[in-house]
Design goal:
Layout (H helix, E strand, L loop, with lengths): L5 E10 L7 E9 L3 E5 L6 H9 L6 E6 L5 E4 L13 H6 L6 H10 L15 H13 L5 E5 L7 H18 L2 E5 L3 H6 L3 E5 L3 E5 L1 H4 L3 H7 L1 H7 L4 E2 L2 E3 L5 E3 L14 E2 L1
Parallel strand pairs: 3-7, 3-8, 5-6, 6-7
Antiparallel strand pairs: 1-2, 1-4, 8-9, 10-13, 11-12
Helix pairs in contact: 3-4, 8-9
């Protein structure tokens, strides 16, 4: 497997807040440049795992390693703005830091909502607010972008657009993305690697492999699992014998790797 820069690594993570078992023996890694999707049913412990990875909570057992100097941009699952608070998108982006005005405009343009700069946040749509949250995370110039349910309150068309935008941000910035979601069909089409948990680690790997794993099928049903095994996923790379991602062309794709392909 080509060497990649490891950004975070959790090993044997156990989390029992108040004595209640939420996570038991979870392993997770995220390397620079990859999109890792964390999936599982409601109550599986996905947000708790993110909190452990970010250092917002401490595990009861196991360990979390983060690269020295790691910069994280975080979009939380929920953020409620007081409806009477006089807050424009411009001022919202300035909360918690003094980002230059030009950078605020730049990140809003990057996520496709530059026109919202002076609009009150209470008067923008759910999809626009999610993009605004993403823009705020990008102000940090993150090595790792952590997105907890980033398409909440967004219609199906908007969801696909946001996932495509996340992929473009990864390509443009070279950052890693840890994505938490229950929108299985879209996530499986937009990720490099999947980690499926249900308080324990059910399975992990490339989407094609995970969608056929017995624990994944048991969680989501054979009909859905079969449907997701044939998601549309256009590669600009090939997979090695161990599932690793290799670029196409030159000597990077040795004999025995899969050919370039489309699923669907």
């Amino acid at each position: 497997m080509p060497d990649r820069e490891r950004l975070v690594e959790g090993r044997g993570l156990v989390f029992r807040p108040g004595g209640q078992a939420v996570l038991d023996g979870i392993d997770i890694t995220v390397d620079r440049g990859e999109i890792v999707s964390l999936i599982g049913p409601n109550g599986a412990g996905k947000t708790s795992l993110v909190r452990l990875v970010l250092g917002l909570a401490r595990p009861d057992a196991g360990s979390v390693w983060r690269r020295d100097g790691l910069v994280v941009g975080y979009v939380p699952q929920r953020l409620v703005i007081d409806p009477v608070l006089p807050l424009t998108a411009r001022r919202f982006l300035g909360l918690g830091g003094q980002a230059p005005a030009s950078l605020r405009v730049e990140v809003l343009a990057e996520v496709g909502v530059a026109h919202l700069l002076d609009r009150p946040v209470q008067r923008i749509s759910g999809g626009e607010f999610q993009r605004l949250l993403l823009a705020r995370a990008l102000l940090r110039r993150p090595d790792l972008l952590v997105l907890d349910e980033p398409v909440q309150g967004v219609d199906v068309t908007g969801q696909a657009e946001i996932y495509e935008m996340i992929a473009r941000i990864r390509e443009r910035r070279g950052c890693a993305v840890l994505l938490v979601s229950h929108d299985l069909h879209l996530v499986m089409a937009a990720t490099d690697r999947v980690v499926c948990i249900n308080r324990h680690l059910c399975c992990a790997g490339h989407p094609e492999t995970v969608s056929r794993h017995p624990e994944y099928v048991a969680l989501f049903g054979p009909g859905l699992a079969d449907k997701l095994a044939h998601y549309a996923h256009r590669h600009d790379h090939v997979h090695g014998a161990g599932g690793e991602v290799l670029p196409i062309g030159g000597d990077a794709a040795p004999a025995g790797t899969e050919a370039r392909h489309d699923h669907g």
